[in-house]
Amino acid sequence: MASQPVNVAELELPELEDALAERGKPRFHARQLYRWVYRRGLTDFELMTDLSRAMRTELRREFIVSTPRGVSEDRSLDGTRKFVLELADGRRIESVFIPDTPSMTFCISTQVGCAMSCGFCLTGKMGLLRNLTAGEIAGQVRVLAAATGLLDFPFNIVLMGMGEPLHNYDATLKALRILHSEHGLAISPRRITLSTVGIVPGLERLAREPLMPNLAISLHATTDEQRAKLVPPNKKYPLGDILEACRRFPLKKRSRITFEYVMLDGVNDTPEDARRLVRLLSGIKAKVNLIPLNPAPGIPYDRPSDARVDRFAQILADRHITVSVRKSRGQDIRAACGQLIVEGGTKKTAAQQMALLLN
Ligand code: SAH
């Protein structure tokens, strides 16, 4: 009776133990498999030398470890590396390695494309092609850690690649549990940041999770009218509701919510915007990360001058809000925020997308 092989990459440790037991194999092999796959970066059962030869042969018959396949890599002059990864069904995603920020950081995707359609983001132009599975989300970390030689070293993870993590809630949280396993990469939730446009039911669920990543909210505007134009989900989840969910969000000692704010020249970068932002954030343990727009063809906004960014930042700092200006990394290879896009989107022809990629 030939049945579908079990995909180890999609399973949390207890699920893998069950899968082994159901096939008459000792549960403790799950820990061994986790160590090989996550700590050593190996997926070929033949190379797992602490398993008997007979067991390796059986595993090869009944189990697989599917892993996103690296199809190309671009290296930026600043050390940023952008990986194009192909999934089992041929769909492609992008993941980015950003060195020394001051830590090593992997920026990974949660969806192929994105349904949020933010007006300044290239991924939004693709539309949503599909959700990633937990194994595909965690698999990006395996691939990047192996490619950068960081399997044995600490690194941070930001869920800031393609997609909206709270729009693919279950797979995203499952991936975090897989990555957290002490028999695998053992990544602390303090090293993980989940960035969201602010899907309120998702925020409320997240607030009750035992495994709680750091939270970043993509705010980008200070009035509902302005935000609904830039971030369409605001029509459903307006600023007041998002900030209310943030006020209720349980934070560990000394931790804060990051508010990301893409600065668009002449649109949301005035001193009045800065002062409104201060008022909106009152009562929230917040820090603000200003992201001067990374311009791209097809994006109808411009990057403000450094002077405008500095003036905005100064207003926040004067009101005792911690503020940083995000340096754009990997712009020369289109690896910067909002620049991740691969072919196959629904909203553009292949030729249009190629033009975007090559420009
Ligand atoms: N959907 C989630 C996760 C993606 S994070 C979210 O929106 O938070 C991607 C970050 O890059 C977001 O803060 C997004 O607003 C920002 N971004 C998107 N396009 C950008 C651009 N063209 N320039 C600078 N930052 C951009």
Describe the structure.
The protein has 359 residues and is of the alpha/beta class. The chain has twelve helices and 14 strands. Strands 3-4-5-6-9-10-11-12-13-14 form a ten-stranded mixed beta sheet, covered by helices on one side. A two-stranded parallel ribbon has the order 1-2. Helix 10 (271-280) packs parallel to helix 11 (306-318). The longest helix has 14 residues, at 134-147. It starts with 5 loop residues before the first strand and ends with a helix. 43% of the residues are buried. The model is unreliable at 345-359 (pLDDT under 50). It binds S-adenosyl-L-homocysteine. S-adenosyl-L-homocysteine is lined by residues 116, 118, 120-121, 160, 164, 195-197, 218, 260, 262, 291, 293-294, 299, 337-338.
Features:
359 residues, alpha/beta, 10-stranded mixed sheet, two-stranded parallel ribbon, 12 helices, 14 strands, 33% helix, 18% strand, elongated, disordered C terminus, binds S-adenosyl-L-homocysteine
